[in-house]
Design goal:
This protein is an alpha/beta fold. The chain has a domain of 238 residues: 3-Layer(aba) Sandwich (Rossmann fold). It has 14 helices and 12 strands. The protein has a 7-stranded parallel β-sheet with strand order 3-2-1-4-5-6-10, sandwiched between helices. The mean pLDDT is 96.
């Protein structure tokens, strides 16, 4: 029986991981710590809280005393850190929060884990797993090989720079103090519970409300897209069999430029409305309800400052060593994601104000 502390567990990827773990390992103890900033959403976890499947604590990862108390009182042996400020646009307009949470917050977690696990308990059976991003590696040209784990760090935004710093701190606490750590660098996630400021849920909710779909620059920026449940499977494999001190890339092997992605999403949305006449009544302001194709909502806008051109993940290491393989195609994942948003309007509507 494992005893997990999941930080940032009320955010997009964290929520999906909590549901994944609670279903797959129902005997394990799960404690979720989240500060419930704008992207943390407690209603996402209410079904699990009400059934007593998890314990939720509202708190900041920067509060070392709180983290130490949770580690001691619940005899936690595994800490999975999802807590992060993660939106690049927000890091450009307000970088301070990213430095505070992603660097100082991660360091606070590491200090707490070292104090309780190494200094006080001297326990061998512990693991600190840190969730990072492919953005720490910088930007690729169209013909460059994908990012491997040994790729040089070249972060280009305050967000990616703060995540790069946190990765280095995790590595340092392993090599200097002996903390048992692993790190995973993932590509762009998408799926249920995705906060509607990010590209895919933003497009879905905008289309349903008759709003334009903003495309930065020429729309040719390329990302590798990973269905969030496949990401959870990858983290599980690392926790079970990953080598201590190692980093693993988790990718979808699924590169799309932004314009092609949004056009595909528009096509899928049109198909949903064509196959279900009730959707036009449910969303009277949507483009299909107004007799327009979703693609007519496309609108090119001024490019984002310092916009990285391409990210791509080389996931050979986790595939070869741990048997990982993404199971959801992008076509399937988009359909699942759109379907979830259409059936969970009560979840995302309140978040549009925060967006």
């Amino acid at each position: 029986m494992a005893r997990l502390l999941i930080t940032g567990g009320a955010g997009f990827i964290g929520v999906n991981f909590v549901y994944y773990w609670a279903e797959k390992y129902p005997e394990d103890l799960i404690v979720v710590l989240d500060a419930l900033t704008y992207a943390g959403n407690l209603p996402s976890l209410e079904p699990l809280i009400s059934k007593g499947k998890i314990e939720f604590i509202k708190g900041d990862i920067g509060d070392q005393n709180v983290v130490e108390t949770l580690l001691r009182d619940h005899q936690i042996d595994t800490l999975v850190n999802f807590a992060a400020e993660s939106h690049v646009d927000r890091s450009i307009t307000g970088p301070d929060a990213f430095i505070e949470t992603n660097i100082m917050g991660t360091h606070s977690l590491l200090k707490a884990a070292r104090q309780v696990w190494l200094v006080e308990q001297k326990r061998e059976d512990h693991r600190f797993h840190h969730i990072s991003t492919d953005e720490v590696f910088g930007s690729l040209e169209s013909d460059d090989p994908a990012f491997s784990e040994s790729h040089q760090y070249q972060p280009n935004s305050p967000y990616s720079a703060s995540k790069a710093a946190s990765d280095h701190l995790v590595r340092a606490y392993h090599h200097t103090f002996g903390l048992k750590v692993t790190t995973s660098n993932c590509s762009n996630n998408y799926g249920p519970y995705h906060f509607p400021e990010k590209l895919i849920p933003l497009c879905i909710t905008n289309l349903l409300h008759g709003k334009k779909l903003p495309i930065y620059g020429d729309g040719q920026n390329i990302r590798d897209w990973l269905y969030v449940e496949d990401h959870c499977i990858g983290i599980d494999l690392i926790l079970q069999n990953g080598k201590i001190g190692e980093t693993y890339n988790i990718g979808g092997v699924n590169e799309w430029d932004n314009l092609s992605l949004v056009k595909l999403l528009c096509k899928k949305m049109d198909e949903f409305f064509a196959n279900d006449a009730s959707l036009k009544a449910q969303y009277p302001d949507s483009f299909p309800a107004l007799g327009q194709s979703c693609e007519s909502a496309l609108e090119f806008v001024t490019d984002r400052a310092g916009h990285d051109r391409r990210y791509a993940i080389d996931a050979d290491k986790i595939v070869d060593e741990l048997g990982y393989s993404p199971s959801v195609t992008f076509d399937e994942g988009l359909v699942k994601t759109i379907d979830w948003f259409l059936n969970n309007e009560e979840w995302w509507t309140p978040l549009l104000i925060k967006r």
